């Protein structure tokens, strides 16, 4: 991360640094989890310190293609993954889409396994990444909008705000568990 303040919440569990080059030097897996508009600068900055012959590159930046990553790394033969999780990954109930490039079966299983610890993983071709994002990431927003509207409806039916929200929360939770 750019600042020590951002890293402070992770210091107890992880070895953290603001030095990207130091972070990638000895890593087996390098995960680029930055905003898409920052990816080019970050990748080009650390590429000279990387060893694509032994390192796996994972991009968690929406819209950044394997072609772009290859160009920025200076290696078309690098083992790369594009990974797009939705926000529910934060609570271990995410949907993550994974696409691979130049990866072996063992490497695919390892990356899929890492993200499966945080929810459901669907492997897709690179061309399906945008569709997966639209379905799973926007899907959370649509579900939240439904919940908000239903809770408002509950208030109009005579329940107080807290009761209405709890009723809708359990209704949606129950529906998901029935599925």
Word description of this protein:
This protein has helices at residues 4-7, 20-25, 36-46, 66-73, 105-116, 129-156, 161-178, and strands spanning 29-32, 56-59, 79-85, 94-101, 119-123. The chain is an alpha/beta fold. Strands 1-2-3-4-5 form a 5-stranded mixed beta sheet, with helices on both faces. Strand 4 (94-101), helix 5 (105-116) and strand 5 (119-123) form a beta-alpha-beta unit. Helix 6 (129-156) packs across helix 7 (161-178). The longest helix is centred in the last third of the chain and has 28 residues, at 129-156. The two termini are 39 Å apart. The model has no long low-confidence stretch (mean pLDDT 92).
Strand order of the largest sheet: 1-2-3-4-5
Overall shape: elongated
Mean pLDDT: 92
Strand content: 15-25%
Low-confidence stretches: none
Count of distinct strands: 5
End-to-end C-alpha gap: 39 Å
Class from helix and strand fractions: alpha/beta
Order of helices and strands: HHEHEHEEHEHH
Biggest sheet statistics: 5 strands, mixed
